[in-house]
Amino acid sequence: MKRVICWDIWGTIIETSYTGQTYVEYLSQWKDADVISATVRNVLMTHEAKRSQIAFDAMADDRPLNYEETAKILCARLFDPVPLDLPPDIKLPSWKKVAELWRMENEAVRWIPGAKEVILWIKKHYPGDIQVLVSNTTEVGWWHVDEKLGISDLFGWSKCFLSCKGPVAKPDPFLWQLVKKEYPEANRYWMIGNSYIFDDAIPHALSFSTLVNEEPHPPEEILEFIYGGSSHDIPHCH
Predict the structure, then answer these.
(1) Is residue 63 classed as helix, strand or coil in its secondary structure?
(2) Based on CB atoms within 10 Å of each CB, which residue in 10, 53, 57, 84 is the most buried?
(3) Is 3-15+110-227 in CATH node 2.60.200.20?
(4) Helix (H) or strand (E) holding 16
(5) Are 226 and 5 in contact (CB under 8 A)?
(6) Which of 23, 107, 120, 110 is nearest to 72 (CA)?
């Protein structure tokens, strides 16, 4: 049997140890958090971000957007034009503050305990199975955490199916359809994530088996889900 195992990134294999104010919490003083998250997902986590005039320098230099450019685009989408109901004594948020908080949150990224070991265990014991990333991410966030943790080295760049490379983000079926198109010979497909909204219903409808929980899964649970059995020898998971 040939399996394709799709991993989400944030909250599934990596997390942040940052405990301060996040950029979403900061911006929530002006905008609803759901509006902020939807804008980040649908604009900054897709090619749509590159359509902004603010992205011109990045496009000209053929490089990813940086935190400052990303924060400027987000603030422009949220507050340009200035809301008519904004009281005159209320200042708009600082894109510099947004960039700073965003960078600090990603700088504190780390592997979720046991996640890397599970990935390596599968590579060792089932070398014919294919492990890929299927995740929503901004360009700047991806390049920052990848530089710190070497995620693309572990999976291989061609196996990173990321929203920032394409036109839409999860839960749109686009990324999972790309996986099935890339690996049509697989007998089974799995999706492992931490969000029922973004990692469960759509892949399930596309005949993926899904393991989704808002808390990180114990390594043994992941392996039992995919390979069966009740005991797996995974070093350094506890």
Answers:
(1) coil
(2) 10
(3) no
(4) strand 14-16
(5) yes
(6) 23
